[in-house]
Design a protein that fits this description.
single chain, mainly alpha, 434 Repressor (Amino-terminal Domain), 2 domains, 8 helices, about 75% helix, about 0% strand
Length: about 110
């Protein structure tokens, strides 16, 4: 589901009209209509205001539910790491950060080719 569809669904679930949402976040109704039609993307500031008004997380507006779920194996590994001493957790975090940065750099460089 797109941001546009999630926004419209959440707004309706909360019983708000487009005008009420627009008034609550200080935007013109035409902008809310554009967001819900998918012809315009909300700014980060607008997303924050929308999330506060609808009482949801910004993640729930932006991401699909399955994008936020952790892999079961990774979840178990993270639980194991959580029980380790802080010093070992710090080392593991540094290793993970390095691998994530390396992966991101490889992805970007492959796109440029």
């Amino acid at each position: 589901m797109s941001i546009a569809a999630r926004l419209a669904t959440l707004r309706k679930q909360k019983g708000l009209t487009q005008q009420a949402l627009a008034d609550a976040i200080g935007l013109p109704i035409t902008q809310i209509k554009r967001y819900e039609a998918g012809t315009s993307q909300p700014s980060l500031e607008a997303i924050k205001k929308i999330a506060r008004t609808l009482r949801v997380t910004t993640d729930s507006l932006i991401f699909e539910e399955e994008e936020l779920e952790a892999d079961a194996d990774l979840a178990m590994q993270f639980q194991a790491i959580a029980s380790m001493p802080r010093k070992q957790q710090s080392v593991i975090k540094q290793l993970l950060e390095g691998m994530i940065i390396k992966y991101g750099a490889e992805r970007w460089s492959s796109r440029l080719k």
